[in-house]
């Protein structure tokens, strides 16, 4: 997600699928935790859905409205084998970060998150724009506007740097496939 213009990086959906299926090749089903009340939540799911057939995975949407909905959805999804989890960006996903990470670990679901904060809190991996660069872009825009440029005349910014963050410190849990397939280099 891009905080400057409200634009979303929908193209990440295919990359998220690629990374998750590389780190956990046995995954054939993926639950996508999304906020269906947001246009961006629907758009992110549609982008992931459009790429799913290329990776031979089936998708299931799991709502993020409250903790009970997340718990029920992830637990029901985890009853069948070969599952994985993708968590696109939303304020509600961030609000329920600890619960989502706990459920992924409890049910041994390899999970990919939109933001490195999930990995710092114990999640398996994240892939997304480098947040500090987005804030720098925002500061640049504020500067240009304060100097008299019209916001409508400014180009829509897009992220230029992305980061893959992998948690290698979770032995015996959802990070175990990573230990076999990844060198220590991609930890940041």
Note down, in words, how this protein is organized.
It is a single chain. This protein has 188 residues and is an alpha/beta fold. It has helices at residues 12-23, 39-52, 67-78, 91-95, 97-106, 116-120, 131-146, 176-181; strands spanning 29-34, 58-63, 83-87, 111-113, 125-129, 162-166. It has a 6-stranded mixed β-sheet, with helices on both faces. The longest helix is centred in the last third of the chain and has 16 residues, at 131-146.
What would a concise description of this structure say?
The protein is of the alpha/beta class and 188 residues long.
The run of helices and strands is HEHEHEHHEHEHEH
How large is the radius of gyration? 17 Å
- Fraction of residues in helices? 40-55%
Oligomer: single chain
Largest sheet: 6 strands, mixed
Net shape: elongated
Head-to-tail CA distance between termini: 19 Å
- Number of helical stretches of at least 4 residues: 8
Features:
188 residues, disordered C terminus, alpha/beta, single chain
Topology record:
Blueprint: H1 12-23, E1 29-34, H2 39-52, E2 58-63, H3 67-78, E3 83-87, H4 91-95, H5 97-106, E4 111-113, H6 116-120, E5 125-129, H7 131-146, E6 162-166, H8 176-181
Parallel strand pairs: 1-2, 1-3, 3-4, 4-5
Antiparallel strand pairs: 5-6
Helix pairs in contact: 1-2, 3-5
